[in-house]
Amino acid sequence: MQEFFSQYAKIQNPTFEMVLFTFLLAFICSSLIAFVYWLTSPSTLRTGNYIQSLILSSMIATMILQSIGDNVASGLGILGALTIINFRTTFRDPRDIIFMFAALGTGIACGSYVFMIAIIGTTMFCFVGVCLKFTPFHMGSHVIWELRIRIENPQRIQAMDEVLKRYCRRITLMDMRTDNGRGAEDQTHEREYHILLNDENSHLELVGALEASGLTVRRLSKQTVTENAILD
């Protein structure tokens, strides 16, 4: 197989069949990467647009690399044309960036006719991605909630921590604000958490327990796909 792929490593004038095979291979590899992303990502963080972008970006990378070939002038021209495009999409989860790089890398490998690297690289990336699903580093398939609490009495912080530990399996402090007010006695705190509940249907009980402890729940909502975060 290595000899079969190596004979296509340098192609000056690819045939229609070879170009079609290259795009099909890029589509299959990027689709596998997109499937692994869908399989290993929490349901609240999945978005159809991003999964489509993983597949389409690989196809674009393949097309660009095939268009450039070994022509340095064409490469500089395409590079200059791409600088006109201003990408304003922000990735708040580094994991999304890694999957996008994987899809682009697959497209680059296919467009450069190094098919063995594309196949082996995609296979290894997807294998490791699935294996990480069964490790403590995985976020799981649970719903991620955003919780914002207002603390008017600092003595209630311990009670808040006890309530959160009772209802949540994982807790991450994302933001903390302090308002001094008119004096030290009027000092209030606001904390924002990303949490995973032990029971997805216990969010109302959590709010009730926090308010019964003398705290004010400013917000409790499911995390949206534009506000990704990794729970440590």
Q: Helicity level, as a percent range?
A: 40-55%
Query: Count of helical segments?
Result: 8
Describe the main β-sheet briefly.
Answer: 4 strands, antiparallel
Extended strand count: 4
Q: In sequence order, what are the helices and strands, one letter per element? A: HHHHHHEHEEHE
Q: Could you report the average pLDDT, rounded to the nearest whole number?
A: 77
User: What is the radius of gyration?
Assistant: 24 Å
Structural class: alpha+beta
Shape: elongated
Layout of SSEs?
Elements: H1 2-6, H2 16-40, H3 48-68, H4 72-82, H5 94-111, H6 115-132, E1 145-151, H7 157-167, E2 168-179, E3 188-197, H8 203-212, E4 216-222
Antiparallel strand pairs: 1-3, 1-4, 2-3
Model description:
The protein is an alpha+beta fold. It has 2 domains: 2-132, no CATH class; 145-222, Alpha-Beta Plaits (2-Layer Sandwich), CATH 3.30.70. Helices cover 51% and strands 16% of the residues. It has 8 helices and 4 strands; from the N terminus they run ααααααβαββαβ. The chain has helices at residues 2-6, 16-40, 48-68, 72-82, 94-111, 115-132, 157-167, 203-212; strands spanning 145-151, 168-179, 188-197, 216-222. The protein has a 4-stranded antiparallel sheet with strand order 2-3-1-4, with helices on one face. The chain is elongated and about 75 Å long. The chain starts with a helix and ends in a 10-residue tail after the last strand. The relative contact order is 0.14.
